[in-house]
Amino acid sequence: MKRILPPVVGLLACALIAACQPQADGQATAQPAATSNTTSTTSSAPTAVDNVALDGFLAAVYGHGASRTRPWVHAPLQASFRDTETEANAPENVTRQLCADESVIQGGQPARLIAICGQPEDYGHPTPGLTDFFLLRMQDGKAVAAAQQHLQEYGSMGNPGEVKAMQLGADLWGFVVRSSFSNMGYTASTWGLVLPKDGGFHDAGFFRSHIDNLGLVEGCDDASQPCTAPKAFNINFALDTDRSNPTAAHWPLVVTESGPACGKPASATHRVLLDAATMRYQVPNILKRETCKDDWTD
Fold first, then answer.
1. Cα separation of 295 and 182, whole Å?
2. What is the pLDDT of residues 39-63, one digit of tens each?
3. Which residue positions does the secretion signal occupy (predicted)?
4. Could you tell me whether strands 94-106 and 72-73 are parallel, antiparallel, or unpaired per DSSP bridges?
5. What is the value of pTM for the model shown?
6. Domains and CATH numbers, the chain
């Protein structure tokens, strides 16, 4: 006798059998696509001016002979950085080199302060050197000058002196140039301050870094022996900044004197403030003097 399953049991059995059967090719059950509410965003933070970018900048301004590591001799490609004392149509003969290089954070972004120093071949005793100042940033994958200036007013005998970048406020960077002049036993060295202004750099003031007349005073020309002559002086002026308020826009300069000064020791300390309106330091004449006395007149 043939056994017949009840309708409900038959339907259940058919469902179980169908579930166990492999699905034909191309009939896979579609899975719902995963959804996400996240949105991908990309942000490019400002990057530092690396050596490759600096090499490219030097080549663009001074030509492919320019180098971070060695001096070069040829006229800059950009005429605004050439020696202004060279006669028209005459070949420029200036030896240049990278003389200051400092990576900094300025305006909340990485930047690079550099200076290029140049010494003309044909120079006299009072001839200043050439100095080009730059504040570099990265833009579109290359280094560009956010500020730049060509100055020919530092040093003597064609040598612009020693240049270094220096932080002078919470977000203020500039350059300090130390240059010297000697003549007939007298020596005067000067600190020159260079600050950014209006997309360039400008002379923000000067004061002495050293004065002496040891070569003029009898018995004082031997550097290994102290000179006690009442008319002799050998005064140093040390430069520092007052960072007691580190968030201040401009830090006062602190200049301290030391050394023999016409029979008594120099020991004065001076605070020099920046005039924010002119971006020049208010340097007292006593720091510009050429002897023991306050003999400087503007």
1. 18
2. 444 456 789 999 999 999 999 999 9
3. 1-24
4. antiparallel
5. 0.81
6. 47-160 (3.10.450), 168-298 (no CATH)
